[in-house]
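Posting here for the record, re: nickel (II) ion.
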Amino acid sequence: MLIDTHAHITDEKYGDGGKGIIEAMPRDNLEAIICIGCDRESSLAAVEVAKNPNVYAAVGVHPYYPEIVTNALMDEFKSLAQNEKVVAIGEFGLDYHHDEYDRDAQIKAMAMQYELARELKLPMVFHVRAATGDFIDFIRDKAFPEGGVMHCFAGSVETADICVKKGLYIAFGGKLTYRNSKTTQEVAKKIPLDMILLETDAPYLTPVEKIGQVNYPAFVSYVRDKIAELRGMTADEVESVTTKNAKTLFKRIK
Ligand code: NI
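Prediction output follows.
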């Protein structure tokens, strides 16, 4: 069965707090979903929805909101993470895509969440967009004993290599199926198979097969199929290895 390692199932686009998605998991061939927090509210909602069987949570603050990353919030995340269904800290990182961003504030917020994850001995879910240089500078002298994942990876083969050597997995989502994702497809062909994870980032980044619709964790099967095509493997092979990888990284998934 498949694991969607990155989805936002409590997003208001679903209108039911993720209930329909969770009910459909057995027929969608989904063994587990990790619901990812982007700020305080969505992190609390992720922990709440993770009360359901086979749903897990990550708590963290997206680089869009560095100003909310305070010591008080880190303390709150620390107590949330006592819950065994919280499998990671994230998503956090750097995002310089939009015109107005505070680089120093983003780097500081990333460093605080890195420290939190280290203290809690949890893996990290990184969101990095248009900020590869600063991110590589950040990780260069850091260790990742519990590992982590580069969510929705869109960098080069060289960048992927640096991340993999640091113990960071590379996660692919619906973007991998787009015609203009040649670089990402090259990465998916070349990185070690045991460092690949599947994700959707639902409700965003719908795979090409369902373009125009809201994205769902069930559509992670299209990402599996694309990787199988790129690497000359069967869908079953990709499914079993990526599910095993997800359980290796996210040790709290039972
Ligand atoms: Ni996300």
